[in-house]
Amino acid sequence: MTVRIGVIGTGMIGQEHIRRLTHVITGTRVTAVFDIDTARAEEVAASVGARALPSGGEVVDAADVDAVVITSWGPTHAEHVLAAVAAGKPVFCEKPLATTAEDCLKIIEAETAHGTRLVQVGFMRRYDAGYREMKRVIESGAIGAPLIVHCAHRNASVPDSYTSEMACQDTAVHEIDVLRWLLDDEIRSVQVLRPRRTRNAREHLQDPQIMLFETAEGVRIDLEVFVNCRYGYDIQCETVGEEGLVRLPDPAAVSVRGAGRNSTAVLQDWQGRFENAFDTEFREWAASVAAGTEPTGPSSWDGYAATVITDALVTSLHSGETVRIDALATRPAFYGGAGR
Ligand code: NAD
Ligand code: ISE
């Protein structure tokens, strides 16, 4: 069976996912698209033999759309996700699920009323081979109970429009999701520290930031977010347990000897770093749609949790105080129950 997909939002990552669904994943085809930038939508649609429709609602309702992918700007996600849930169609929504906790709860309510899971959120790190192996090692008990996690999320540079809050909402949000999943634990408090600012950041931007988290089980996590580190895109994660530690591997790269040096290149962007993860994410999601089963990836509850935790980070960024998170104490039975 070919899964026919409608895509809402044909910007940067929308085009990436359309390429992926057309040329990489087998058994999927993009049949309809919408973007408020009509010219862009038409150009992208023409490139894959799809139709550009006049609204997101028409993409959701189209008879030749079995499932929906949302890759528009974050503040528009909730509206499109709710439309897909109302139509009873599976929907993959790029992060964030919604930009307010209130909108995430509306989605949870609508999906719960529908009775089966329809929504998957685009936290692709859960599909990265290194993180999957790290989870397998933790669950095997080989390093004992996890005690501390050290992380770094570094970008070479960011555009001038990037704000201090985005370090929490756009950047750290990936660690928040992957660490909740990796540790099978819930984040209970956060704090943001402001180290000396790099001279390479614009005046308005606090860069780097150090984010501290504590989980329900008492695991302590430190995360350095440094988005003007200059040297490349670098993701680090090391989990220290009672009996040993497990560290994320660096991406495979050849070593080059020349000009008196032995060197290894550092990747420059997240697209290259997580390309395989994105492919696996869509392969597994499309397989669940084709089989008519519930998605197994990040749920609306995970999208809600990420928004609640990033909101707490933003509060701490401004106050400097530790912020407790009580809203996530109990996970609804619909999403697996009992909290992590
Ligand atoms: P972008 O600005 O390149 O594209 C967004 C597109 O949405 C634009 O073409 C814009 O015209 C369109 N749009 C705006 N309002 C719309 C509406 N109401 N209906 C339909 N289309 C609308 O942005 P991007 O970098 O492609 O990011 C899109 C989303 O993907 C964001 O939520 C972002 O956080 C997420 N993202 C995820 C990752 C990841 O690593 N998983 C990486 C980058 C971006
Ligand atoms: C960007 O928005 C992403 O989602 C990338 O995955 C992330 O690594 C980057 O830091 C963000 O700015």
TrEMBL record:
An annotated GO BP: inositol catabolic process
Any matching Pfam family: GFO_IDH_MocA_C
All residue ranges annotated as the Gfo/Idh/MocA-like oxidoreductase C-terminal domain in the record: 135-324
InterPro entries, per database record: Gfo-Idh-MocA_inositol_DH, Gfo/Idh/MocA-like_OxRdtase_C, Gfo/Idh/MocA-like_OxRdtase_N, MI/DCI_dehydrogenase, NAD(P)-bd_dom_sf
Domain Gfo/Idh/MocA-like oxidoreductase N-terminal: 3-123
Any GO molecular function: nucleotide binding
Oligomeric and partner information: Homotetramer.
Protein purpose: Involved in the oxidation of myo-inositol (MI) to 2-keto-myo-inositol (2KMI or 2-inosose).
Name of the molecule in the record: Inositol 2-dehydrogenase
Organism: Streptomyces paludis
Lineage of the species this protein comes from: Bacteria, Bacillati, Actinomycetota, Actinomycetes, Kitasatosporales
